[in-house]
Request: fold
Amino acid sequence: MSLVPHYIENLEPYKAGGTIAEIRQKYGLERIIKLASNENPFGPSPLAQKAIAEHIHDLHRYPDSGGIELRSRLAAIYKVKVENVVIGSGSEGIMSNIMRTFLMDEDEIITSSGTFIGFKVLANASGKKTIYVPLNNYRFELKAILPYISAKTKIIYLCNPNNPTGTIFTREEFDEFYKHVPSRVLIILDEAYFEFAEEFPEYPDSMHYRYDNVITLRTFSKAHGLAGIRVGYGMAHERLIGNLMKVKLPFEPNSLAQAAAVASLDDTDFIRHTVDTNREAREQFYQLFSELKIPFVKSYTNFVTIDLGLETRVQKIHQALLEKGIMVRPLKAFDLGQCLRITTGTPEENQIFMEAFREVTRDK
Ligand SMILES: Cc1ncc(COP(=O)(O)O)c(C=O)c1O
Reply:
């Protein structure tokens, strides 16, 4: 008899990009620049750090299981009710709860092949049939998803902007798509990078319109710089949120995460600085790649994806950068073997990356 279901037995474990400590040890380098995981290079906001220090003395107490302070702050910001907001251990934690809450029997999932790996891992671990519709020109093509919707479809996962390509679908595209999606299908709209995208008029910030079968997911891991503490949030109709609240672990996210997130929401200067420096960095990257005649994808996020044509070239450049202490992300695991994704860093880190990139692409 098998110890685990066949779909767990056959699951490929998630391979993260490697830690700074691992790379430092492997290559014997002092300085490592990590531009591989779309984190905020400036760290957590000072207000969040202060809140963590203050709450450390209360760690002998359980967190507020209702997460009321953080949920109320989010509800006020987005002008919804507390009952419309769920929080979790990262937006991935909420995704995992969505799968546990809503999927049953013969339900099926639809998403795209070139999208967030964390969701693919959850979909594969659910044991449900998952249909991966290819991207078109690095974008989610919503109309290509429609023919795959059947009576069995339960969840459609859309990532906007999309990781790892940085592209968006527009409000018009979504509205047209939505008209054809049955109301029993739950649409997950993953907006992990929304703080970077919201300044673009063509970006359909999903909180500007509410649908009963859509759940918007956002996170404190990216612009807010709190990836290590694990806190994210979701917003949807209270019936959806009410069911998620029944299934989620009562004490997630932990108390430091809740306190840090509340404080981070107050630090609008920090977010502005993050978004402003990211915009400049993205432009510098575009200029570099244009100069080097390397095709890049216009990004609405804090990373830029480039197309190096061949997977072997990606491997060589990735390795050469690693040897210089610069971590970037090859996209083979995202079904984009010819592509490399570079997260923006601090202005100093970006300069070092750009110089190194020129050098390593000279002969590769
Ligand atoms: C599109 C997308 N969604 C979700 C996440 C995970 O976010 P969290 O840290 O909140 O679980 C990431 C992280 O890389 C992401 O790129």
